[in-house]
Amino acid sequence: MSKVLYRNATRIYPGGTRPAVNALDLEIGAGEFLVLVGPSGCGKSTALRMLAGLEDIDAGSIHIGDRDVTHLPPKDRDIAMVFQNYALYPHMTVAENMGFALKIAGTAKEEIQKRVREAAKILSLEEYLERKPKALSGGQRQRVAMGRAIVRQPKVFLMDEPLSNLDAKLRVQTRTQIASLQRRLGVTTVYVTHDQVEAMTMGDRVAVLKDGVLQQCDTPRAMYERPVNVFVAGFIGSPAMNLLDVPVEESSVRVGSHSLPLPAHALGAAKGEKNGEVTIGIRPESFQMATDSSGLPVTVNVVEELGADAYLYGSVELPTGQHDIVARVDARNPPRRGERVHLSVRTEETHFFSSKTGERLAAPPT
Amino acid sequence: MAEAHTVHRLRRTWDKHWYAWAMVIPVVLVIGALVGYPLLRGVYLSFTDANEHNVAATIGNLHLDDQFQFIGLRNYQSVLGGADTKFWAVLGRTVVWTLSCTFCHYSLGLALAILLNRPLRGRTIYRVLLILPWAVPAFISAFAWKLILARDNGIVNYVLGGFGIRPLDWLGTDTLALISVIAVNVWIGVPFMMVAMLGGLQAIPAELYEAAEVDGASPWQRFWHITVPGLRPVSATVILLGTIWSFNMFPIIFLMTRGGPGDSTQILVTYAFVAAFEGIRDYAVAATYGVLILSILLVYASFYRRALRSSGEVW
Amino acid sequence: MMAPKSESRATPPRTFRRRGERSALASVLLHATLVGASFIAIFPILWILTISLRPGFAGSSEVHLFEPSSLDNYRYILTNTKFVSWLWNSIAVAFFTTLIGIFLSATAGYALSRFRFPGHRPLMWTFLVTQMFPVAILIVPLYNMMNKLGWVNTHTSLVFAYATVAVPFCTWMLKGYFDAIPVEIDEAGRVDGLTPIGTFWRLIVPLARPGLAVTAFYSFLTAWGEVAYATAFITSDEKKTLAVGLQTFVTQFKQEWGYLAAASILITIPAAAVFFFAQKHLVAGLTAGGTKG
After folding, report:
1. Is residue B16 part of a domain?
2. Looking at beta carbons, which residues of chain C come within 8 Å of B155?
3. Residue C136: band (very low, low, confident or very high) from pLDDT cuts 50, 70, 90
4. pLDDT on residue B1
5. Which residue among A207, B63, B76, C158 is least packed, with the fewest CB closer than 10 Å?
6. d(Cα A128, Cα B224) in Å, to the nearest integer?
7. Which CATH number characterizes residue B196's domain?
8. C4 in contact with A at a CB cutoff of 8 Å?
9. Is pLDDT above 80 for B229?
């Protein structure tokens, strides 16, 4: 296993105006599981393919271990990749698919067979070794794609949205299998997904990209508790954090008709905002139903009851109009649709961002 | 009781499928009448001694009935084993013709398709130009090539003359004539192969090539392990169609050399035509040849189909 | 294969080839090959074209490349021969062949695509096999049949003969096209109250337009370029199609290559035009029909 280093790596597609990946600076430790996550078009797949050697690098460099691999072809980089659509060779059996790279490299046949059998055992593919891909289910094909990567015993695993073609239940199951497999094998893994739940549950660290620019790279917990800007705050966490642009008053912010006192950690930063406005971020779990009418007035639109939790989707009245918010409520006693409820906010858990730049002003103490 | 049950089942089958049959009936009728009947009659004729002298004819007011007789397998005997039969020589030549044509068709078509499958400037123009031979009616092509290859005034000999090479009688010398007609048939048939292969190449997902690249395969290895197997379905279809098409290719040889010089470019279909329409029109012998040609092709097609089935293709 | 490289020292300036970029030599070879192949592909027609533009060109291929060109040969063909009436004959035959071809192939192709009726597999196999039939075996009995029907020397005989040539291939190909149209559309039609035949005409046919276009073009080209049946079935001069007419010209004009060339070009232009309309759909039809079997 090796560490991976992106140093100012940039990729501009010919004819494109802005870079698909813009000066990416990322250091991935040996044996680490790093997830690249972001919305469509954010450059995460491109960044992965740059590491694989399937995309040119227009500026900057990429290093695997101590080697500068920026101009090396894929086969010289000692990496293995799991593609989104698996890319299994249709006319070869599972065993041949898994052994293909070794065969190309001239490995001895017994060695190939040994490694294929080991990988098949780990992935429970032993009985499918002689089948062709078209005779396999989606989940089985996904495992073959992983087996093909494992057999190579590379320095780095690259995975491009490997779970996106599976149904929901299988996805959850396979997610844990991949994570535990990686822990067992200890190979540095770079994993691309658009699903932030996958990112949060699988990665040692998560890197959020937007429009080709790295927003934040941190552990899942740190991403959740201390998002560095409005985008990350709204992207990580499901249901998403509520983000409201509100004016600052003496020692409070005004949310519609309600006044929220500024918490200690935000006083200085919020007051320093010249335009008198901040963006506050309130996670759904920071709300609670107020016993009296002293809280934020909310009209209930939809209540989602998920068994253990219930989420209230409603709207608050702001000067700028109706604004949707999500709040977590007691599942045993949820409000009804159309009701008007009052929610109190645990302000010590509130995030503050600049309404101009979106950068973090203050994060709640951990 | 059993009869009522069968009737009931037939009735159900009818109800279920009548509109399917209704849609298919026109075609079946037309094909049956215009292909089935002549086929059967052709087969029947091959068992007789029909020629232009003894078939029904209307001369003025006089109407003569068919007077040919059933002679069983005698036509087949004389064609296949008779003393002066040219059948086997012609068959051999037909095989040579078909194999050479198909081999050249496939390899040139594949090569051009591979070249065209890359991003390059002017790709559309090249494609349009390379398809042109397919667009031209076959008899026009035959005429054009005949002019080009003519011994005395053909442009080919003219150009060769510029290099000091004596003019060759392309269409009048034994082996040269066969090579010439093969070349012309290849010229006509390559566009079809190229277009089909191009479609097949474009159907191979790019991800497979990337996976192979990551696995360490060189360009040649990628061609061998991904392109060739990926093209197998298309290749199977076009080779089958191509061999049958070449085997039965009548206009080129007929219009360019008439089978000559001598019989050096005769293939089975042209030879049968000669028997049917030249000299004393021997309809029975022509029909015999027709039946033999058809049988050969049917046997070939079923072997081909069986070979495809065993290698996993659906046919 | 894996030579270690130093990490942060400045690497000597070296232009790396981008992915997918060809070397200059490879580009030159590629284009040279394609240019050569294209030249071979178009040369015969170009040659005929140049001959046709040279008036009074009797029997020589001396390469007078830059002689004055004129359309005299074309004028002669169009005004002094039966070319124009043959042209109309060919158009008529091709038109009706196309009509019948589309109708028969579409109905049969649809039935084969959607319905698993008893006999559908042998029928498909029959279609393939009929394409193998050599003209030799069919032409004499067909001629006799046309004779009995009184259709010899009529265009009807040709239309039906060409239909038998074109329909099997077109049915096969259209089946492939229909296979690609999801069955859900048929089901939606049925839910909306259409009979299967209604579904076919109103819903499926508009969606299969590319396939129908190819069928039309293929039938047209078959009728336009067929020689054997046309020679056998048509006896009177006025009824000849262009294919037969050209053979007459060959004997009639002997060495007057200019006229022959002009006639050839005139015959080729409609065929090529129709072909180029159809060709981009042709590939889809071939791969659809071929790979699905």
Report:
1. no
2. 47, 61, 63
3. low
4. 60
5. B63
6. 25
7. 1.10.3720.10
8. yes
9. yes
Number of H helices, E strands in chain C: 13, 0
Q: Are C38 and B130 in contact (CB under 8 A)?
A: yes
Candidate from A172-181, B32-41, B226-235, C98-107 with smallest mean pLDDT: B32-41
Tell me if B51 is assigned to some domain. Answer: no
CB contact under 8 A, B213 and A104: no
pLDDT of residue C181: 81
B20 part of a folded domain: no
In 3D space, the residue among A47, A51, A45, A75 whose CA is nearest the CA of residue A63 turns out to be A51
C-beta atoms of B213 and A87 within 8 A: no
Q: Number of structural domains, chain B? A: 1
Residue B188 to residue C111: CA distance in whole angstroms: 34
Q: Which of A67, A75, A76, A78 best probes binding to C when mutated, by most C CB atoms within 10 angstroms? A: A67
Answering whether pTM is above 0.90, one says: no
For residue C206, is the peptide bond before it cis, meaning its omega torsion is within 30 degrees of 0? no
Domain that holds residue B181: 86-278
Determine the residue type at B171.
L
Stretches where chain A sits below pLDDT 50 are none
- Note whether C132 contacts B297, CB cutoff 8 Å: yes
pLDDT in tens, C79-124: 877 888 889 989 999 999 999 888 888 888 888 887 777 777 777 7
Neighbours of A27 (CB within 10 A): 14
Phi-psi region of A171 (alpha: psi -120 to 50; beta: other; left: phi over 0): alpha
Give the residue, C137 or C259, on which the prediction is more confident: C259
Q: Are C108 and C172 in contact (CB under 8 A)?
A: no
- Shortest Cα distance, chain B CAs vs residue A104, angstroms: 6
Extract the tokens encoding A277: 């406005």
Sequence spans of domains, chain C: 24-70, 80-282
Q: Does domain C80-282 have CATH number 3.50.50.60?
A: no
Q: How far apart (Å, rounded) are the C-alpha atoms in residues A133 and A150?
A: 18
| Region class of A22: left (phi > 0), else alpha (psi between -120 and 50), else beta | beta
Is B133 in CB contact (< 8 Å) with chain A?
A: no
Least confident of A59-63, B165-169, C250-254: C250-254
Cβ–Cβ below 8 Å for B27 and C105:
yes
- The sign one gets for the Cα dihedral A72, A75, A78, A82 is positive
Find the residue in C nearest to B283 (Cα). C140
Scan residues 64-93 of C and list those with Cβ closer than 8 Å to A: none
User: Span B128-157, mean pLDDT?
Assistant: 86
Q: Where are the beta strands (DSSP E) in A283-339?
A: 287-289, 296-305, 310-318, 321-329
Continuous segment of H or E residues that includes residue C212: helix C209-225
Could you tell me if residue B37 is inside a domain?
A: no
The count of C-alpha atoms lying within 13 angstroms of the C-alpha of B307, restricted to the half-sphere facing its C-beta, is 11
Beta bridge partners of A206: A35, A218
